[in-house]
Write a structure and sequence with these properties.
The protein is α/β, with parallel strands linked by helices and 286 residues long. It has a single domain, classed as P-loop containing nucleotide triphosphate hydrolases (Rossmann fold), CATH 3.40.50. Helix content is 41%, strand content 11%. It contains ten helices and five strands. It has helices spanning 34-58, 74-82, 100-103, 109-112, 134-138, 143-162, 176-188, 198-205, 207-221, 236-250, and strands spanning 61-68, 90-93, 120-125, 166-173, 228-232. A five-stranded parallel β-sheet has the order 2-3-1-4-5, with helices on both faces. It is globular and about 75 Å long. The N and C termini lie far apart (51 Å).
């Protein structure tokens, strides 16, 4: 760490528990209340802003991959990471199904073009691991393409890391019971129905096919250069806090000293007067 730089403060106490978390000797801890959760999340989001400034100044390149079953909670973690950060630094990549042209390209080609330049942190909401998951289970790729992917991916990721990119891979692990509960919630909540796709229904039916695909993927691609980190996600709030805290702990960022700018005085009106706007206005309903 550079001389005179400020070391970041951990968002958790010496026991690794969020401050204010309920202490419970039972196997399943009590859920965090909203007040404790939001307080801890704000601390972590403050650290993410520091990480952002460090990345801009240092020119660091970071890739964070989120994978997991449908309804495992990937979107919630990504949303809270992006909530107080700049989309110009924290870029979220969630690619749609490949076009006909992209299907003729090298498989990794459309992902490579989204890798970060200096000063960027790219978050993949699902990634090239689609081939090891949904494509394998649903038969969207050949057995040969799937086998080749598992064999070649460790070398691809090693080349990314050797080029100086920080690569973090997270698998969100949701239980069968909790996934079922979340799917039912999506059906009942009119604001969440869009989240339940035909692919989600198939993933519910093919639970064990996806389990086997997960096991094979982790066995083949969990390497020393690019290991997988498992995030238990039945408790959404703890999963978000624990995952973001882990990300921060694995990137050697430093707090960049901040000097508040001085606001310049406003220019003089020189005779300008505000007109009475005659355009349509939004109705004041609230």
């Amino acid at each position: 760490m550079a001389k005179g730089s400020k070391k970041k403060k951990p968002a958790h106490d010496h026991k690794g528990e969020p401050e204010g978390a309920a202490k419970n000797d039972a196997a399943v801890p009590q859920k965090l209340n909203n007040k404790d959760y939001e307080r801890e999340m704000f601390k972590l989001q403050t650290e993410l802003v520091k990480l952002q400034e460090w990345a801009k100044v240092s020119g660091a390149r970071v890739v964070i991959i989120f994978e997991g079953r449908d309804a495992a909670g990937k979107g919630g973690i990504i949303k809270r990471m992006a909530e107080r950060t700049s989309p110009r630094v924290f870029r979220v990549v969630a690619l749609p199904a490949p076009t006909e042209r992209q299907k003729t390209q090298i498989y990794l080609q459309r992902y490579i073009e989204h890798l970060p330049a200096g000063g960027e942190i790219v978050i993949f909401d699902r990634s090239w691991y689609n081939r090891a998951g949904v494509e394998q289970v649903m038969g969207f790729c050949s057995k040969e393409a799937y086998t080749k992917f598992l064999k070649n991916t460790p070398n691809f990721e090693a080349s990314i890391v050797s080029d100086g990119i920080i690569l973090l891979k997270y698998w969100l692990e949701v239980s069968e019971k909790e996934q079922h509960k979340r799917f039912q919630s999506r059906m009942k909540d009119t604001s969440k129905r869009w989240k339940l796709s035909p692919m989600d229904l198939e993933s519910h039916r093919r639970w064990y096919d996806y389990s086997r695909a997960r096991d094979a993927m982790l066995a083949a691609t969990d390497t020393a250069q690019a290991p997988w980190y498992i995030v238990p996600s039945d408790d959404k709030k703890r999963a978000r806090l624990n995952c973001i805290a882990d990300i921060l702990s694995r990137i050697p960022y430093e707090e960049i000293p901040y000097k508040p700018p001085k606001l310049p005085p406003r220019q003089k009106a020189h005779g300008y007067e505000e007109p009475k706007l005659q355009h349509q206005q939004v109705a004041q309903r609230y």
